[in-house]
């Protein structure tokens, strides 16, 4: 029998074991008895990777050589994220689902054994560590040919509840310091499975971008007594010309200094630290604006836009008073048939150059007829 947990908005989570010892979690918007067994042969799971310090930047780099053999662009009939059929034993044993979450079969990060601690940073003398953390796959729908923009508001609300639930649970692990749910869409950004899905990376260290954001936000708070992201949203609301959508609880805008041709930030108007901290009212209001944003993105050129959509939030146990939750969608497409490549200045120097003013891309997004 599955373990059943009741969540907000009538969502039911059902946990079942997979053949190799992992856990699959079904999220349903109504009661649903989940009993399907994973009948695949048991396979050994890969070992834990290595964590090495780049002493020039004091940034951690994960060595996960076992990922070279992961599934790469399988045809639809062999998709491991579709429901199980008579001719396909997939990662999801049941014949249908709404939203599911399970541990990645080829994780970059995995749970450590016994006591674990991040190595002390000593420059070139820093010890290598084990790549502790969690990597989970979250499937948005059992429809292989769909996308986020095709989901119903009810489906997105279930997805939101799954995100919130995973953040709550992953935050209880002592070795987890930061959690980042994200979605990659399109081969242009490296997608290797076309089924609509995302991932949740739970890191045992603070990723470099979050460290930088935290450093800047702390300095702003010390100087002004205010939270930096709150001031950012206030400026966008005041300027108005970069806002593309808004409802009672959320606002979507192209940031003042966008790095990508089409970059959208979606933020709650009443700020919170992370997904788990959202109120029921905020969570209920998210589906409508998120679907609108995705439809506007696809509508700019009338094609499915490649993007990376990432939830930025405060770390699990530090800096929670300085960083705010927001959803960033960034597309590398600048025109039909043209991509913005991260070339010398961006990739080597981290110095972004934009060919399109944020006000222009915001106007194009607003002009899309839904």
TrEMBL record:
Domain (Galactose-1-phosphate uridyl transferase N-terminal): residue spans on this chain: 50-207
Keyword GTP-binding annotated: no
Record-annotated Galactose-1-phosphate uridyl transferase C-terminal domain positions: 219-368
Entry-linked InterPro entries: GalP_UDPtransf1 (IPR001937), GalP_UDPtransf1_His-AS (IPR019779), GalP_Utransf_C (IPR005850), GalP_Utransf_N (IPR005849), HIT-like_sf (IPR036265)
Catalytic activity: alpha-D-galactose 1-phosphate + UDP-alpha-D-glucose = alpha-D-glucose 1-phosphate + UDP-alpha-D-galactose
Listed GO CC annotations: cytoplasm
Keywords tagged on the record: Carbohydrate metabolism, Galactose metabolism, Metal-binding, Nucleotidyltransferase, Transferase, Zinc
Family membership: Belongs to the galactose-1-phosphate uridylyltransferase type 1 family.
Protein name (database record): UDP-glucose--hexose-1-phosphate uridylyltransferase
């Amino acid at each position: 029998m599955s373990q059943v947990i009741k969540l907000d908005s009538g969502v039911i989570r059902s946990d079942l074991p997979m053949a190799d010892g992992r856990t699959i979690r079904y999220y349903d918007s109504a009661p649903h008895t989940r009993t399907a067994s994973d009948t695949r042969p048991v396979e050994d799971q890969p070992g834990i990777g290595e964590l090495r310090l780049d002493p020039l930047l004091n940034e951690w780099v994960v060595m996960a050589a076992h990922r070279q053999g992961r599934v790469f662009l399988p045809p639809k009939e062999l998709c491991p994220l579709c429901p199980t059929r008579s001719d396909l034993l997939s990662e999801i044993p049941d014949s249908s689902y709404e939203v599911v979450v399970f541990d990645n079969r080829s994780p970059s990060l995995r749970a450590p054994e016994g006591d674990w601690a991040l190595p002390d940073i000593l420059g070139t003398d820093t010890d290598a560590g084990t790549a502790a953390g969690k990597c989970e796959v979250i499937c948005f729908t059992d429809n292989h040919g769909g996308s986020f923009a095709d989901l119903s508001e009810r489906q997105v609300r279930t997805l939101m509840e799954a995100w919130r639930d995973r953040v709550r649970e992953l935050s209880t692990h002592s070795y987890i310091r930061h959690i980042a749910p994200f979605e990659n869409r399109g081969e242009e950004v490296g997608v290797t499975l076309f089924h609509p899905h995302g991932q949740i990376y739970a890191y045992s260290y603070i990723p470099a971008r979050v460290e930088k954001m935290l450093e800047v936000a702390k300095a702003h708070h010390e100087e002004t007594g205010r939270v930096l992201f709150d001031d950012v949203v206030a400026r966008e609301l005041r300027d108005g010309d970069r806002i593309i959508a808004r409802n009672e609880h959320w606002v979507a805008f192209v940031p003042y200094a966008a790095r990508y041709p089409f970059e959208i930030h979606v933020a709650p108007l009443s700020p919170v630290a992370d997904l788990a901290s959202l109120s029921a009212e905020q969570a209920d209001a998210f589906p409508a604006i998120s679907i609108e944003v995705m439809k506007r993105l696809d509508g700019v050129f009338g094609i499915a836009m490649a993007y990376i959509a990432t939830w930025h939030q405060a770390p699990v146990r530090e800096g929670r008073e300085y960083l705010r939750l927001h959803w960033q969608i960034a597309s590398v497409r600048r025109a039909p048939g043209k991509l913005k490549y991260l070339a010398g200045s961006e990739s080597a120097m981290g110095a972004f150059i934009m060919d399109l003013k944020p006000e222009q891309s915001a106007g194009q997004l607003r002009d899309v007829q839904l």
